[in-house]
């Protein structure tokens, strides 16, 4: 007679030896939605094809609805940010540094190529498509990059640069790996470029954000010191916006209002002392990830 306990162990072993089901389109879509800490809505990812490479790896092609923020400086348009979730944006220069690549430049600046308006520097749909295609290494004409809408917003507060949002549909290739935690996106490929690993990008971007916040707070602190030397006291306020209004443009040439996590910097100062702070990634004050500069 078979021992019930032995039978139970045999059943468990049998289940472990059975190969897991291949990666489904639905699972691939959900995995892409949340890769690298992003949070895309379900209808923003359309998986076209899933290819099984081995029991532990797979590849898929998918169209992603991505929204980019473009800014214009000295008559040239550049992509500056990408939306990664509800009210969440990531700076493209930090992502580029994290994956050790350079952002494209001067690829879409010839007015005769893209302008059919009175202003040759208008962000037309054709120019916007060129910017996104250059970012992903896609050679136009190609269906891998399509522009759904361009919304211009004019000049932003405190800046001489115009801005716009570009709603796109971008086709990318994904390579998946399966471990004990399940399926995850291991690499991404676009256009004619090589595969890029995404596993370490969130940590690298976070570290770059901390470095950027530290540098920007140092710039504000130096401007404050100059202000005090000339006027005899620091700016008296508990609002960073008031501080920047006092410092810019004489003491601080660049307007700095938001930290790399797109949240306002904090300031508290009187005539003899001040404290500058970024709340860091957790958006909470007086926690270990705060970045603080005091006189």
Q: How much helix, percentage-wise, in residues?
A: 25-40%
The H-and-E topology, N to C, reads as HHEEEEHHHEEEEHHEEE
Give the percentage of residues in beta strands: 25-35%
Which structural class is indicated by helix and strand composition?
alpha+beta
Mean pLDDT across all residues, rounded?
87
**What is the CA-based Rg, rounded?**
25 Å
Total of helices: 7
Give the CA-based shape. flat
Low-confidence stretches: 10-20
* Record field, number of beta strands: 11
What is the distance, rounded to the nearest whole angstrom, between the alpha carbons of the first and last residues?
A: 81 Å
Report on the structure:
This protein is of the alpha+beta class and 295 residues long. The protein contains seven helices and eleven strands. It has helices at residues 4-17, 25-33, 92-98, 111-114, 125-136, 201-231, 240-247, and strands at 45-54, 57-73, 76-85, 88-91, 145-155, 162-179, 182-189, 196-197, 266-269, 274-278, 291-294. Strands 1, 2, 3, 4, 5, 6, 7 and 8 form an eight-stranded antiparallel beta sheet that branches. Strands 9-10-11 form a three-stranded antiparallel beta sheet, with helices on one face. A hairpin with a 2-residue loop joins strand 1 and strand 2. The longest helix has 31 residues, at 201-231. The chain is flat.
Q: Which SSEs are present, and which pair or pack?
A:
Blueprint: H1 4-17, H2 25-33, E1 45-54, E2 57-73, E3 76-85, E4 88-91, H3 92-98, H4 111-114, H5 125-136, E5 145-155, E6 162-179, E7 182-189, E8 196-197, H6 201-231, H7 240-247, E9 266-269, E10 274-278, E11 291-294
Antiparallel strand pairs: 1-2, 2-3, 2-6, 3-4, 5-6, 6-7, 7-8, 9-10, 10-11
